[in-house]
Amino acid sequence: MENLKLDEEAAKQEITLFDNSRREFIKRYFQAEMEDPGHYDLVINTEHLSYEATISIIIHALPLKIEL
């Protein structure tokens, strides 16, 4: 909102447009659905995590991926 100087409603619309555009790109060029969990090795809900906690989770998970 701050960077684009948008109010809350305009920011929500901008996010929706961006998400839809990304979804269509993935579908068109990769014939895939973004929501398909088979395309992801790790999903982290960052709503209640700090950047440091998120980074720690990723760093600790990486060796597990490499071992497979």
SSE inventory with pairings:
Layout: H1 8-30, H2 51-67
Structure description:
The protein has 68 residues and is mainly alpha-helical. The protein contains 2 helices and no strands. The protein is flat, with a radius of gyration of 16 Å. The N and C termini lie far apart (41 Å).
Rg estimate, integer Å = 16 Å
Contiguous runs where pLDDT drops below 50 for at least 5 residues: none
Number of strands: 0
Task: Give the biggest sheet.
Answer: none
Strand content: under 5%
Total helical segments: 2
Helix content: 55-70%
> What is the total domain count?
2
Report the span from N to C terminus: 41 Å
What is the overall shape? flat
Structural class: mainly alpha
Roughly what is the average pLDDT, rounded to an integer? 93
Query: What pattern of helices and strands is seen along the backbone?
Result: HH
Give a concise summary.
The protein has 2 domains: 1-35; 36-68, no CATH class.
